[in-house]
Amino acid sequence: MSNVDPQLLASWLAARSIARGLPAPVPDRGGLRVETGQPEELRRYVFAGPNAGISELAMEISEPRVFIKMCGRQEQLLARVNPRWTPQPDAYLMTKEPGRNPVPSLPTGYWMQVATEGRTTIARIYAEDDTPAASGYAVEHDGVFVFDRIATDARHQRQGLGAALMAALGTAQQSQAAQRVLVATEQGRALYATLGWRVLSPYATVALIPADG
User: Residue 213: pLDDT above 60?
Assistant: First the structure.
């Protein structure tokens, strides 16, 4: 059972791994597994919907810092795991159809640097005193154009920097047929909606948290 197209999810997750320098996702229990290997996250499993493999994983896994993610509502995911798993903040898988890219525009007092490292485009915005104000990443892969880690420092929010980042990163898209994809927080969802994005599915997460964390 899938809440979103499994191929779209697979393409997004593969592009995300490229953007973050992580191993490519591999099939596992009807979903996809990524060995993230980070201090706060050892591994993640991602499912396109409430697959039976989720319950199997939740019963078998005992090591901490493992995350299970699913396209669907939080209650759907919680119904498939045991109480050892802790729900994480809500997120949303969002898409935007191919189309014209807005012209990047920065408010007065900021400047932007856009660079390409391998297959990843990186945009960084700085304040007049050269302190970092916002940053974001983008990768085109397998029919999707993925935006990742779009973040604005709290001191510089509500200045239009997020929209400027998205516009600048969008200029790197090569195929106008590639579908744009991102995962947004609750706060980010409102911004992206104003830029023409739509929610394809809620994106729920549970995790095994260490006893001391």
Answer: no
Run of H or E including 177: none
Predicted TM-score (pTM) above 0.85: yes
Q: How large is the average pLDDT for residues 104-116? A: 92
Report the number of distinct structural domains present in the chain. Answer: 2
The answer on 118 and 34 residing in a single domain is no
The whole-number average pLDDT for the span 23-38 is: 97
Residues 45 and 85 in one domain: yes
Nearest alpha-carbon partner for 109 in 70, 182, 181, 164: 164
Pairwise CA distance, residues 31 & 114, whole Å: 34
Q: Which of 83, 99, 89 is nearest to 183 (CA)?
A: 89
Q: CA torsion, points 208, 68, 97, 169, in degrees to nearest 10? A: 40
